[in-house]
Amino acid sequence: xxxxEAMEGEARTHVEDEAVTWFVLLRDEAATAEDRxxxxxxxxxxxxxxxxxxxxxxxxxxxxxxxxxxxxxxxVAGGRGNAASRRRADSRKRLAAIAATLFLIVAAAGLWASLxxxxxxxxxxxxxxxxxxxxxxxxxxxxxxxxxxxSALSLAFEGAPRRVTLHRGEAYFAVVPDPARPFAVAAxxxxxxxxxxxxxxKRSGGRTRVAVASGIVEVSAGRAAPLRLEAGxxxxxxxxxxxxxxxxxxxxxxxWRDGRLIFHGAPLAEVLRDLERYRTGRIVVTDExxxxxxxxxxxxxxxxxxxxxxxxxxxxxxxVRLTDLLVLIRPAD
Length: 333
Hints:
The longest helix is centred in the first third of the chain and has 27 residues, at 83-109. The protein folds into 3 domains: 3-114, no CATH class; 119-248, Jelly Rolls (Sandwich); 259-331, Phage tail protein beta-alpha-beta fold (3-Layer(bab) Sandwich). The protein is of the alpha+beta class. The protein has helices at residues 3-26, 33-45, 47-61, 67-70, 83-109, 119-123, 268-276, 304-314; strands at residues 127-128, 135-138, 144-147, 152-156, 162-174, 183-187, 190-194, 198-204, 207-214, 216-221, 227-230, 234-238, 241-245, 260-267, 282-285, 294-300, 317-323, 326-331. The strands form 3 sheets. Strands 1, 2, 3, 4, 5, 6, 7, 8, 9, 10, 11, 12 and 13 form a 13-stranded mixed sheet that branches. The two termini are 42 Å apart. The chain is elongated, with a radius of gyration of 22 Å.
């Protein structure tokens, strides 16, 4: 799969997520005229939106035989309770069933090319971690790698340079110096090369970020000149080349190894992608207008629900927990 195909696959996945989200929201009895108007604007904005919407409708239409069981309403104890409360509870149960069923079906029916970037290669990686899992591996040269949650990498140590490929997720590297055999990490659209140092590499949202805790690294991406980074410095790179980022606190680099995620003005979408690696299911932003909202905070990787609650209290957003596997992030009303 080349770079262009990978980007197209990621875009298709995003559009499919949006279509499922709109389908679930519009079946809610509380959906407003404004919701329907925003949906109409989304639908007409792009041919891919209409195609994804038709596919969701087709999938749901094919589940008619399952619908009575999957969307069954559990009776409320004390049948003389408030009718409006029972209707709201029934609606939430139906929406949960719809959401869970659709996401399972869309996931099963999706083409291989529509899987997230790095997913296919990650299946064949030498080392993989699952949700919320962290693993340390010792390399033949004495170097070590701490692999973050939902991550995958491969090794090629037979010759020079020593090479690691980070297919997805995040990893922290502590490299033993060997001038005769430089250490190279390939990630996304670039390569990080070092002699001996400690640094963190994370792939997220089609871009890669590197942060240096000690020593010196060189980052190469695209046609841009290589960028030299020292301790406390970092960069992001992707298809548009390398971009230096602001000065970093060395103590914060790789802090996730201690079960904490630290953010300083990070875009909401990036924060949610990181949280997703520590919980089962999906977190979906329903409106691109809130995806870039800045987030600053320290979150416990073992309590992602608390992290989401904190985000909802401090930003103009609202959480909609449809199931244990699906959380929607919407603009606050």
